[in-house]
Structure of Mannose-6-phosphate isomerase, cupin superfamily:
Amino acid sequence: MASVIHFTIATEAEKSADFRRVLWTGQHTQLVIMTIPPGGEIGEEVHEDTDQILTFVSGTGKAIVSGSEKNVAQGDLVVVPAGLKHNFVNTGPNPLVLYTVYGPPEHADGAVHKTKEEADRLEEEGKDEPPTE
């Protein structure tokens, strides 16, 4: 019998200063926490075959999905269906902390990227590929 996989998500997200940290990877979904520094952003991107749900733990920011913009803050949730161009920008003086669920997984299992630059480099080098069954 499998054990219960449990996180106190706000605590997990708040204690990680890493840009991106994969907390859990399953066959069909992946749980990732992110911390975007003041003035920073995730970067405009499109996940062709992956849906994404982002929940904001602290900070303030702006969600940009398919050219539409919405301010986001603690407790907000944004859905990004597969194939839509999106970006999330920190507009406040404190880190923008969030957790996101990808379906299917988008990043390497257990990946930790301290900065956006490191994350981008590893993606470009093909070192951040999601597991294949």
About this structure: The first strand starts at residue 20 and ends at 25.
